[in-house]
């Protein structure tokens, strides 16, 4: 399934949630969709848990 079709389905789901459930339902569907997307990326192996929790390397030369 192409990303355009997935985007269209997501947009339709958000539209229905907003129309029938109001703004709160819109936010709930958007949050659950984002969580599902991230979990799907983990399942596919495209994303590692460490990507969210890595500490940035500091360049100590900037302080001098």
In short:
With 64 residues, the protein is mainly alpha-helical. It has three helices and no strands. The radius of gyration is 18 Å and the shape is elongated.
Helix fraction by DSSP (H/I, runs of at least 4)? over 70%
Q: SSE order, as H and E?
A: HHH
Rounded Rg:
18 Å
- Regions with little confidence, pLDDT below 50 for 5+ residues: none
Record field, number of beta strands = 0
What amount of the residues lies in strands? under 5%
Oligomer: single chain
Shape descriptor: elongated
* Overall average pLDDT: 80
Largest sheet: none
Q: In whole angstroms, how far apart are the ends?
A: 53 Å
Structural class: mainly alpha
Count of DSSP-assigned helices: 3
Structure notes:
With 64 residues, the protein is mostly helical. Helix content is 70%, strand content 0%. The chain contains three helices and no strands. It has helices at 3-21, 23-44, 50-53. The longest helix has 22 residues, at 23-44. It is elongated, with a radius of gyration of 18 Å. The chain starts with a helix and ends in an 11-residue tail after the last helix.
Topology overview:
Layout: H1 3-21, H2 23-44, H3 50-53
Helix pairs in contact: 1-2
Keywords:
mainly alpha, 3 helices, 64 residues
